[in-house]
């Protein structure tokens, strides 16, 4: 039975609780502030294995078509893969495998392997006691603004449409992401047609506005939305969040496509990551 007596009804209180949950999420053992390294391992699988910064063992790519990385270590390295101490070689299956591998290096340091669109693999290293978590103070955010809650129209595109998204570290190259439909609305006499790609069961809107690099994070922000059964979608920019790369340089975030770059300030949602002194974390 739901305890409705304690459920907040004031939108400002609801937003405050949302921000509390966000701060708990980014400081969790695999939250954005815990990511301390993403290192790609590529080349000839027969070549000498490579070290990865911050963790023991030597790492090698697998033959093309196989998911994951190979680690070579001794028992003294204390690397545990899928619950087994490595003393020799072990395969760490990638996140693209139906049964991805898990790695533990210590009580606080863990890892897993991610895949690129090109079939290469990287180890991501997470530290539940990272320097960023220790220094974290808060996520700065705008006050609640009801004018940035917008009812828009979602028009599905049969089969979806590929839209090129540039990523922060890809040196201008784009990756095609499937946009399942168009989000359209008008505000203050301006018509908008936004591109949002699928993120699980939701849509992920990557956008920028004229606050970026001034009062908000320079790269842009994210908004996650779900189309309603009646073909509408609610864009509540008060729920806009900072991308993972605002918390750790080890993420490679998508950048807003041209149609998602607002020429006006959106003074709603998260602004910046602050340290305990109230200054920018990085």
- Secondary structural class: mainly beta
Question: How much is the average pLDDT?
Answer: 93
With strands numbered from the N-terminus, the spatial order across the biggest sheet is 1-10-9-8-5-6
User: Order of SSEs, N→C?
Assistant: HEEEEEEEEEEHEEEEEEEE
Strand fraction equals 35-45%
Computed CA radius of gyration, to the nearest angstrom:
21 Å
Biggest sheet character = 6 strands, antiparallel
Overall geometry comes to globular
- Number of distinct helices: 2
Low-pLDDT ranges: none
Q: How many domains make up the 3D coordinates?
A: 2
Terminal CA distance reads: 44 Å
The number of strands is 18
Question: Percent of residues in helical segments?
Answer: under 10%
Plain-language structure description:
It is a single chain. The protein is mostly beta strands and 282 residues long. The chain folds into 2 domains: 32-127, no CATH class; 138-275, no CATH class. It has helices at 11-26, 131-135; strands spanning 35-41, 50-52, 55-61, 69-73, 80-81, 84-85, 88-92, 103-104, 109-115, 121-127, 136-141, 149-166, 174-187, 190-199, 202-207, 221-225, 232-236, 270-275. The strands form 4 sheets. Strands 1-10-9-8-5-6 form a 6-stranded antiparallel β-sheet, with no helix packed on it. A 6-stranded antiparallel β-sheet has the order 16-15-14-13-12-17, with no helix packed on it. Strands 2-3-4-7 form a 4-stranded antiparallel β-sheet, with no helix packed on it. Strand 2 and strand 3 (55-61) form a beta hairpin. The longest helix has 16 residues, at 11-26.
